[in-house]
Amino acid sequence: MPRIVPVLDLSRLEQGASEYRTFLLDLRTAARDVGFFYLSGHGISASEIDDVLDASRRFFALPQADKLAIEMVKSQQFRGYTRAGGELTKGAADWREQLDIGVERQPIAQGPGIAPWTRLQGPNQWPSALPELKPALLAWQATATAVAIRLLKAFALSLDQPEDAFDAIYRDSPNHRMKIVRYPGRDATAGNQGVGAHKDGGFLTLLLQDDNKGLQVEYDGSWVNVDPLPGTLVVNIGELLELASNGYLRATVHRVVTPPTGVERISVPFFFSARLDATIPLLGLSEELAAQARGPASDPDNPLFRDVGINVLKSRLRSHPDVARRHYADLLETGAAGS
Ligand SMILES: O=C(O)CCC(=O)C(=O)O
Ligand SMILES: [Fe+2]
Asked: Considering the chain, what percentage of its residues have pLDDT values greater than 90?
């Protein structure tokens, strides 16, 4: 039986016209059918992957005080450390600790008439006890960005669009975000929500996972395991690609189940997204493709807007109510965040 979550080899794009064409077709099929695939042939060395996972493990092994020194609640930009149970998915606590890193940029000066999402731009928080983490993760951001852009161009081509169809909405200041995550094991009777069922918000997510299981994707009404496959990245479609393709491409629901006691799982999701000031276009699909587009499957509790900044801000406010209360109380009172 073929795997439900297929393996796609990115190097086929460089193996002549026929491989190139079939790769694009396979990509489109995988992204439309299950919305998840493993990516091989990405050109990232095993040592670079090991370095990121090792640096992440060293971060989580720091004394709790060093991690709490950069707790996310100190950051208006939702950057920094969140302890296990500190993040919510659909109102329920996720049993994972994590460090959120965004793009390193200067904050935007605030004042009347400035959109609230502009507060999302600004610096990261880095642990002073582990100076090597910053260069390791910034290097990974650069590597993952390059792969994400190659994939995004391939997606555009696979939908019979010009290769640069998405360029204008990420060029110069894409808003990618990444995190390093540790899922501590625990007794199943204590609950099993590593991260609750959700869709990702950006264009594409590139996920690095260690050797431990836990990631599951919803397919045809059941949960399918996306077990680790050494040397690959797991790629999934986010809501922006679903929106741009009018639902032709699928942003699939996924979750992580907590490992058993005595096991921990490390993962590094990288979310490639559009500029915060972008508006997501609706691609002009060919008649044949348009006929197969299902329309974006919007969650009635969380409707999506074509304006990127407000979507991102809404989702961050929901996930991190402590940051929301500390830094966005004005919006919560007036409902100006649009949620
Ligand atoms: O840790 C994982 O394997 C997936 C995490 C995830 O889905 C997320 O953070 O959005
Ligand atoms: Fe996710």
From this structure: 83
| 188-210 confidence digits (pLDDT tens) | 777 899 999 999 999 999 999 99
User: Which of 215, 235, 265 gets mutated to test ligand 1 (max ligand atoms within 8 A of its CB)?
Assistant: 215
* CA 255 / ligand 1 centre spacing (Å): 7
pLDDT score for 339: 41
Query: Ligand 1: does its nearest atom lie under 6 Å from the Cβ of 242?
Result: no
Fold annotation for 7-334: Jelly Rolls (2.60.120)
C-alpha to C-alpha distance for 93 and 70, rounded to whole angstroms = 20
- Are the C-beta atoms of 141 and 44 separated by less than 8 Å? no
Ligand 1 pocket test target in 88, 254, 270 with most atoms within 8 Å of CB:
254
Query: Cα–Cα distance between 187 and 258 in angstroms, integer?
Result: 9
- Please name the residue whose Cα sits nearest to atom 3 of ligand 1: 215
What pLDDT, in 10s, does the model give residues 255-310? Answer: 999 999 999 999 999 999 999 999 998 899 999 999 999 887 655 555 667 889 99
Domain ranges for the chain, please list them.
7-334
ipTM: 0.99
pLDDT, one tens digit per residue, over 60-96 is: 999 999 999 999 999 999 999 999 999 888 889 999 9
Q: How many angstroms does the Cα of residue 179 sit away from the middle of ligand 1? A: 9
Beta carbon of 259 within 6 Å of any ligand 1 atom: no
